[in-house]
Amino acid sequence: MNKLVCVVGMTGSGKTEITDFFKKRNYQYLRFGQITLDEVKRRKLEPTEENERPIREENRRQHGPAAYAILNSLKFDELLKSGSVIGDGLYSWSEYKYLREKYGEQFLVVAVYAAPQTRYARLAHRAERYQNDPNLIYRSATVEQAQARDFAEIENIEKGGPIAMADFTIINEGTVAELNQQLAVIYQKINDINQD
């Protein structure tokens, strides 16, 4: 049975590194928030938190608190026909509940945690690390921008819920090699589930 493995974590925690790990193992990739960034580009705005937040909130007003799960679900359905999928950026409790209801045992969540000071240091220099980024995945942020986003995600979309209910949790305070060691264990557990 093909799996929908979704990654949840605060900004700068390591979600993209995790999805890269799965993509290298032939998981198909879908980024929840690409919908927002595509709209930012369409409106010819700068990809900043200040410009993105109103678009995210508008989508949630129009489609409800599970908006990004709902808006991406047809894409997930199509991708799952041909293999397992890694979903980058599960955000809200409502999205978690929607996907759990729709996909049942097919749906697994990997939460990644890093302390705020670790994440903010990573975010301060992220754009320098990634020069060619047409999808605007690797954007830098100031401490103030990152903290404002943290508060908004926790208070407005209940991001803590999917983190608390994750099937697997990773503490990402070290190197990418250390992260990959943890991911190898999780990847094997997911494969074991597939064989049950």
Q: Which short descriptors sum up this protein?
A:
196 residues, alpha/beta, Rossmann fold, 10 helices, 57% helix, globular
Largest sheet: 5 strands, parallel
> How many domains, as an integer?
1
Helical residues, percent: 55-70%
Order of helices and strands: EHEHHHEHEHHHHEH
Give a verbal description of the structure.
The protein is an alpha/beta fold and 196 residues long. The chain has one domain: Rossmann fold. The chain contains ten helices and five strands. The chain has a five-stranded parallel sheet, with helices on both faces. The model has no long low-confidence stretch (mean pLDDT 89).
Summarize the structure.
The chain is of the alpha/beta class and 196 residues long. It has 10 helices and 5 strands. It has a single domain, classed as P-loop containing nucleotide triphosphate hydrolases (Rossmann fold), CATH 3.40.50.
